[in-house]
Amino acid sequence: MIDSIQPLRPLKDLSSHALAQLEAMLEQPSWKNGGRLPPEAELARQFGVSRPVLRKALTQMREVGRIISRRGSANFVQPKADLLAGASDPQSLSIQTVYDMKRLVRFRQVIECAAAEDAARRCDPEAIADIEAAYDLMQTLSPGGTVFEADFAFHLSIAQAAGNSYFVFALKTIRDQIRLTIDFTRKLQDRPSDQVVPRVVSEHLEVLEAIKTGDPERARSAMDFHMKQTIIRLLEEG
């Protein structure tokens, strides 16, 4: 009877087993855009391993940038997507980790602060009316509408108000990357795609008011603050 007892699987094999299952799970289409992983206890039970073994697999996934931890215990899957089509270097603008998102926001900070400044300097009434319309859309989303669509329309209208087609071209080029970043940030915060965040709306209002008053310095400062807050919301940096 004793001879029939199977030896326990070595810890190394268990870790490899858990890692393989975790990798397979994250390759499923439902995880393409990231999201919150189930609690560790639930995952360990699902994979048939202990929590210490599961944590080793999670650590390995963090090391390759596939998973990040938030608030001490929650684990989040980072998006794995190649969003750039037709470029000479597809990897250069792909969003694969949260740090790619941070670099994207940093790029936006450079061009959008300049766009806001120029829009305020021009202070074109028709262009400002378009910005106001986009701002109003953000507060009164239509059924089926998303915060991303309203947010992008607001920023694009500022780029158009700047009177420089390169600002418009740059934003349109990275539209999908912006969408992925906004969607992922909202998943981290457990917010649905159509839920408006008051503090974000107030940041947009400050940019709008600065442009309406024709104050380039204030417009640049307001947009700079908004972009910095975007990074904070993404990474929870102080």
TrEMBL record:
Keywords: DNA-binding, Transcription, Transcription regulation. CDD domains: WHTH_GntR. This is FadR/GntR family transcriptional regulator. PANTHER family: TRANSCRIPTIONAL REGULATOR, GNTR FAMILY, UXU OPERON TRANSCRIPTIONAL REGULATOR. The lineage of its organism: Bacteria, Pseudomonadati, Pseudomonadota, Alphaproteobacteria, Rhodospirillales. SMART domains: FCD, HTH_GNTR. Residues 12-80 form the HTH gntR-type domain.
